[in-house]
Amino acid sequence: MSENGKIILLHTGLIALLLALNFILPAYHHGNIARVMVLASYAIGYNILLGYTGLLSLGHALFFAAGMYGMGLSIRHLGFSPAPALMMGIAAGALVSVAIGALALRTSGVAFMIVTLMFAQAGYLTILLFGKWTRGDEGFVIQQAERILWGIDLSDANNRYLAALVLFALCLFAALWLVRHPVGRVFVAIRENEERAQLLGYNVFLYKLAAVVASGTISAAAGASYGLLFGYAGATFATVQYSIFPLLWVLLGGMGTVIGPFLGAVFMFYLIDLSSGITNAYMLIAGVALVLLTLFAPQGIGGEFRRRVWGWLP
Amino acid sequence: MDFGPYLMLATLEGAVLAAVLALMASGLSLVFGVMRVVNVAHGELYMLGAVFAWWVTSFVGGGPAVAFVAALIIAPLIVGALAVLADITILKRLEYDPERTIVATIGLLYIMQQVTLMTYGADARPVVPPFNTRLAIPWLEWADGGLQVFWPWGLSITSYKLFVIVAAVVVLLGIRLMMTRSRIGLLMRASQLDSETAQAFGIPVERIYALVFGIGAALAALAGVLIVPIQQAHYLMGGDALLLSFIVVIIGGLGSLGGTIVAALLIGLSDGIISVFFSPTLAKIIATILVALVLVFRPQGLFGGRAR
Amino acid sequence: MTMILSTRGLSRDFGGLQAVREVDFELPTGEIRALIGPNGAGKTTFVSMLIGRIPPSSGSVHFCGQDISALAAHKRVAAGIAYTFQITSVFSRLSLTENVALAARRRLGHDKAAVQAEVLAALTRVGLADRIDQIAGDLSYGHQRLLEIAMGLAQQPRLLILDEPTQGLAENEIAQFKDLIRSLLPETTILLIEHNMSVVMELADQVTVLNFGQILAEGTPAEIHQNADVQAAYLGTG
Fold first, then answer.
1. Cβ contact (<8 Å) for B113 and A283?
2. What is the predicted pLDDT for the residue at A96?
């Protein structure tokens, strides 16, 4: 089979498997996997920047939250229905990522990490500052009646699972398309050797900005969907922790692989889920995982697969 | 209270914050300056300093003064030793790659924070200051055609807070002397300029790095011990402290000790003064954005020269 | 004769050290020009200013009659200047195909067939066609140099600047390289920084000698070979 065929087969196979799981999973795991698919979409967005362009952001919670609040606030205060509210969320994320990208990309390396961290922190504090509208840390619930998209009640577990699957499939194939597209190849060239890419005639600033915007917009789409599917928006999703999570998922699953973010999100979700039964200090698992990954497996699960078994993994 | 004395009070409170901040940030700055890595777990080392201060003072008898002196010595030593251990087992193996080190120290941040949560718990606990006399401060004003001394109500500072300021100044002077006058300081500066050449000249760069990481951590812990009689020890106290230290180090120019101290004064004093006029959240937002912009447009800091 | 490239008073100092001083340089279209000089003469600094990796302290650079001094590096490349690095700078974790495709794609856009044809053509010309699926980092140093040149060719530049291209090449590869460079004329003008004097003598139409950041001499290889100043500079007695 051609490489192209294998790539299509693997990724559609994953979507088919997740669709099949919809009918057999017990309720508890059914809910979990729905959540994981939305979080994995967030990680796919993050991976475009980290894995394919080589830029490590510590502020992606800002984009996730921009999507969530862009959607949530327009339902709560502007009386939007879900479809335009989703669009508002995605547009908010795109707008914020253009602004942050244009500023932060003037720096690189460690400075880029710190600048993104600080902008995200400013974003989080802004949500608290306007507590009158956002209800701050406490957040607000999006009522069942406000979550009916084209006649489909998204608060119903089955619909929610399928909606999450649609989102995940869209993000997965969008990422697959992008990284094999000439533009995505330039992202990789920038990751590998930025100066060389520039001296091949590519405007690396614009390409990096495009990567930030693509990454931020997908993250925002995930944030908006999360709020809509699970009926809640809160400032927790804008904290540093939610910037660290996608980093963790991507590192674990494998930077620069399309399927890696999903593997990382599933694995980490269940690790934390299991440990939270034992202790309330469940973030300990995240800390240990981060240290062990940087020490022993910087390529993550997907990277190891690519190295050992499937050299063609995109 | 009149505006004058009020400003004076805010300035004094700011000076206490500036002192603690200068200690903590110079630890971060020292590590970045010599090793070129950013320690994101620095805030947790500060928190550990505060928590260990509580442990030590609650187990050592002989009155608050003895217990506190014990904490001042023991807590930074333990935290410094932990940091040296982390350097040898983790950072060294990452070859101090800047980005991977940040990821690893984020991991360490959660490990320290969560282990503290599991052992020390989620409560905030106080430490009794070794001495705490209230000292009234005089105010001068023109009245009846002459300069008159009077004692505005509420304008006072505690002896402990004065001690914090003095202690910070002494420690920072000590660090400066160590860097400029001692042999170990010379070795540190040599490793800072060019680690490969330093290594080639037989300087034990790896051991210097471990030591620097330990000293940086001990400074954070010391700041934590000093603050805990004023603020209580809590497992989440590291986050804000880390953010403030970042702000100070960035404004002061990454890796410059002198700039760091000037910036700590600036931030400490202005935080006291700003929060008098603004809601603290707004002040924090403005400060965070301004600092991010400094890093974008003037990465050498506000006080640094053009040199790299 | 039209000049494809010229500089006026081009200078660069690094904190007091004048690496390049007031260089007026002219390169006619269709020529092979060699740029030589002792180590530290400012050759790499000079060409880095041509391509825009380093901004000049003063002076200007003109390409095809246009002042390009203010253009960013990528725009100069888009205008038709290609540059190969002195220290090999290929994408070492990507395949040879992808390396060259990245060079070709900026010009050919999304036309997959055209890119593929260009990749194969460029790699064939440098003699690496049998290795197209290898990872660039696995190549020998000499082969990486050839890959660099292939990346330059795939851009079909009007001016190709080669910074010490024969360093690390075997004798037979150097012979191939000479043939290859000659075959690029007259569409492509060549500016070559070179230490290997036999390559300079055989290949160059004209030679420019740089010493202490200034042009010491200019002329045919034979003239330069006879020039007493140049000999003195190389022997270190000048």
1. yes
2. 95
